[in-house]
Predict the structure of Muconolactone Delta-isomerase.
Amino acid sequence: MLFAVRMDVVLPLDLDPGLRDELLATEKAYSQKLQREGKWLHLWRVVGEYSNLSVFDVSDNGELHDLLWNLPLFKYMSVSVTPLAQHPSALAG
Amino acid sequence: MLFAVRMDVVLPLDLDPGLRDELLATEKAYSQKLQREGKWLHLWRVVGEYSNLSVFDVSDNGELHDLLWNLPLFKYMSVSVTPLAQHPSALAG
Amino acid sequence: MLFAVRMDVVLPLDLDPGLRDELLATEKAYSQKLQREGKWLHLWRVVGEYSNLSVFDVSDNGELHDLLWNLPLFKYMSVSVTPLAQHPSALAG
Amino acid sequence: MLFAVRMDVVLPLDLDPGLRDELLATEKAYSQKLQREGKWLHLWRVVGEYSNLSVFDVSDNGELHDLLWNLPLFKYMSVSVTPLAQHPSALAG
Amino acid sequence: MLFAVRMDVVLPLDLDPGLRDELLATEKAYSQKLQREGKWLHLWRVVGEYSNLSVFDVSDNGELHDLLWNLPLFKYMSVSVTPLAQHPSALAG
Amino acid sequence: MLFAVRMDVVLPLDLDPGLRDELLATEKAYSQKLQREGKWLHLWRVVGEYSNLSVFDVSDNGELHDLLWNLPLFKYMSVSVTPLAQHPSALAG
Amino acid sequence: MLFAVRMDVVLPLDLDPGLRDELLATEKAYSQKLQREGKWLHLWRVVGEYSNLSVFDVSDNGELHDLLWNLPLFKYMSVSVTPLAQHPSALAG
Amino acid sequence: MLFAVRMDVVLPLDLDPGLRDELLATEKAYSQKLQREGKWLHLWRVVGEYSNLSVFDVSDNGELHDLLWNLPLFKYMSVSVTPLAQHPSALAG
Amino acid sequence: MLFAVRMDVVLPLDLDPGLRDELLATEKAYSQKLQREGKWLHLWRVVGEYSNLSVFDVSDNGELHDLLWNLPLFKYMSVSVTPLAQHPSALAG
Amino acid sequence: MLFAVRMDVVLPLDLDPGLRDELLATEKAYSQKLQREGKWLHLWRVVGEYSNLSVFDVSDNGELHDLLWNLPLFKYMSVSVTPLAQHPSALAG
């Protein structure tokens, strides 16, 4: 079941650089684990913004919430979720 | 080069049913031709709305504009375009 | 799996009264069938507006889209969908 | 008398972790007491956000205001209230 | 129990003048009956707009919805409702 | 001459509790003085928000501005003003 | 007493040209009469839009509403009103 | 050449009172110098807000930008600019 | 003196095709005359929309308003104007 | 390939003046290097705001993102990007 998710990140201007690097490394590892598991299906940078557009493939709403809630950067993000369905003109099933 | 595109369709309430069917068939054929050519990469229905979220893979801005402008339903749509780039945490290149 | 759905209805001012009555009766029957099946879990009127706030219980995004798309009043509505999950403080599971 | 209430929480990034845990525990207890009393009828998490969608069943506007005003997290929330009424197509009374 | 209600009216430009006069007379009579009964507590014109700001005093949400739904101009209006409560600094009870 | 005024209050999270109590007491006294003088005609709490909806009866725009500007909580508020006039359907003059 | 007023005009695309000319002439005469009387103090075109920004000098809210309500183009306009007061740094009284 | 300019001021809550008084005095002097030179044509307080609506008469866009950029309070303001032109119904040239 | 102008076009769905072609040809000729005169400095299509982003070089606000007001498509457009000035980091004068 | 980019800058009020000057000098040098290379095609100040409207000429989305992401002021900006295409009425190719 697919969901489009847009994440907009605002890091505090005075975030400690060491903590920042650690956070970003943890976020990357977390994201890549989910990509390898096939749950974080697409991950694109929005040009010119500290934002991404992603597509998740999960078994239900609860799983999606847990994945997002546990993002290492979650408390620095605003997140919006759009549920997707099969389009009648889409070739792919 | 990837772009996310959201299309929201509003058909006139008094559109002739025959014309409507014809338009939708043309739109579907047009969309599937572009999907087969690898230019209309993803096409998802937004749940509960007469809308889609799509991703296009084109060689430049001009090609994207031409593809969208020539959509059979173009004059019944509002369209918004978001340029995408490679995300540093994305596994896929 | 639960989704909150808000539907805002705008009927054309010149809608034929007979057609209008028929549409509303069909909509009511459709809605009550889904309520009896346990899919349209809650249906509330928003005070002062031709709108409702509903909660659906469906097996996936695709089922929700089909239920909404087939609403007899769908083409007269704007619809917005909010996916819901279990809240950690909620008593009910 | 029913009201839909959406609460969006923003905790300060530098909130003391001990205080935070205490606040959340108090909020949970407060919420569950009202749920047990039948006043906080529904409590759902909005997927991907630090937000909930709730339905309250209270005797009047004043009671609703007091319940919300006394939420332990009230000063960290923005709250919006939508009065609900019986829908003519709803099976439940 | 008090509610602030703002009503914004848009009459169709081609509304038959006779029908228009009749509608406005019915609306006025309806409004004045509710004012006399003490349910439509305040009725003010918003300066420069075809709009009013009103305060209703009703026994519950359902009564308010019925009063608004039955406004002769209801289908030409957009309506927004704000529930009110006693303010701790207000002299009047 | 009547004006509707909505005031939304945001107190700093770290406001000193003693200062806060003093501010609120001053605000209450200020508000009640104006109510007794018949200038602050109505004062209602907006349910679920740290906000009020008020109606002022003043001799001109300048007087209204001075009353609002001197609110003890003014620098913690956002304020919006709507000029009101006699409604042709209102019973009260 | 001064008020800033912005008026945005939308004439129906199919308005009869003779009626249109008549309306615009009546509007101009109405506006110039009020300017000569000193009530419509300033009248500026907003560049690139069928809109104006005006300042009115009236004795009270009710007079302003009547002046605006009786604009020949009123039913083709959206109007927003901003009450003004003496600025402490202004040289003019 | 005329421009309408709206300035909304937000002073930091913890601004040093001495610095604040100095800033406001400098702002007032700056504003009155421009008024005397005929460049800051009108300056009105927006009722109930820490805002003004102004009209500037300058020789070009660049001059307007320099005047605004050098406002002593500029870094505490949000500013919006509306270019104005002669209105065909205006008596004044 | 430079201004950025965004124009969004909405042609009526039932516009006569002959009239439409004539309008578009007149618009094109009008636009190209102004480009040749150096007044319509830049003209870009916004990708995926019936819109353009333009830059005009005019002697004053009044000239810009006249150029826009006389666009053959003016009554089918919404237009927004942003005055521009020399940027301190720009190489070009 | 052209993109319009609007950048709105908010510097922290307590930014160290030395750091601020250094940042602005670096930003200017960065911007002028890109202008000289023909990638930052236009750079205009938005009148009355700490903002610019720019046009970039880049080979693809990724290049644009990298240029913007590396702006010395990037973390103090909000940025919005609009892809542009050749307009059929434009004289320039």
Observations:
- Chain G touches chain E at residues 3, 5, 12, 61, 64-65, 68-69, 75-76, 79-81 (CB under 8 Å).
- The domain at 2-84 of chain G is CATH 3.30.70.1060 (Alpha-Beta Plaits).
